[in-house]
Amino acid sequence: MTSPAPTPLSDTTMTADPAAVFARLRAEQGHVAWVELEPGVGAWLVMGYPEILTITKQERLYSRDARNWRLFRNGTVPPDSALGPMMFFRDNVIGYDGAAHARLRRPLDAAVSSVDQRRMRRSVERICDLLIGDFAVRGRADLVADYAVIVPMLAIADLFGLDTMQGHDLLVAMQALFGSAEDAQEGNRRFEELLGGALEARRRTPAADLTTALLRHPDLRGDAEVLQSMVVMVSAGYHTTISWIAQSLRLMLTDPRFAARVRGGRLGVDDALDEALWRDPPMYNMPARYALRDVQLGGRWIQRGDALVLGLAAAGHDPRVHSGHQEREVGNRSHLAWSAGPHSCPGRVPARLITRTAVETVLHRLPGLALTAPADGIPLTPSPWTRCPASLPVSFSVPVPAGSGTTTP
């Protein structure tokens, strides 16, 4: 009797009910399930909360270095595979473990800790007010295309010392780069060109921004490492923050009980943002770790060189750690949306500041906000890694004038 075909990983992100997919996979295979990344290419989807903690904290068993991936080394995965941008080795902080990773990680942590959060909040408020001012007179907007996609890039560009026009150029380049279409390579070239220009400008004229902080850090050896550190911070922060803003707004627009708790003051905005991270984290499935030897995990035998995908969303549905009763778990931030261990996200503080400000500004300035499409018909951006709304069409009544202010952290 032949075994059933493995579940495509994209089934967890492109379905209307991810929890049902996770439950089925657990019933069939346990907390570590064999899934298909692309035809003929399989990997382990690690859905268990404690199993993810095991992987992320044991670098000597589970490496981030994709050069250990057996299916790539033996030619099963070709060099031009669509999996490459997310799974192939990168010569930066993402690609290394141990001492090499720690050296490249220290500048990122130092740069983030240098951010002036009050100045950043004011900058993000200004960006949000300007964007809302552009569409407020229409009484209608797409809160993804007109807002959630733009706010993070302009905010991140400002952190690195790029002006508004350069921020818009960076946005266009990033959309091309991650669109994987014919203009992807040109987008990548333009993306690095813009960041390289900021690097050169800050070498001539230092400023209180992240580019200057990275240039000054003694652990970065030359312009190439500085540039790649900038690439990692901008690209990672951009997509995850878009998704967090969009998913938080989607919950408020489509879940009446969730929205009522927020509007009634029973759920603060930060608590609402954390609930979104439990339900729909920015990275649904985080690639990847690679087994350095044969090992048992969650009752499954993992072979040396196997790829393991961190099911961060699935871990939020692990019945061993999360009851599913959101009202009983207000303030619970033990989700794995930021991953864990040495490779956990270094940008969670600025990401929360951007997301909180963006969501608060919408709630404050757009009264009567309502979705103008069926809640079960919201399109998703195709990806096996993320589950981000592609559109949130809304209508609203006369907005509050800009400058009224949002709450402060």
UniProtKB/TrEMBL annotation:
Cross-referenced InterPro entries: Cyt_P450_B, Cyt_P450_sf
Residue stretches in coiled coil: none
Give the Gene3D superfamilies listed for this entry: Cytochrome P450
What family does the database annotate?
Belongs to the cytochrome P450 family.
Q: What is this protein called?
A: Cytochrome P450
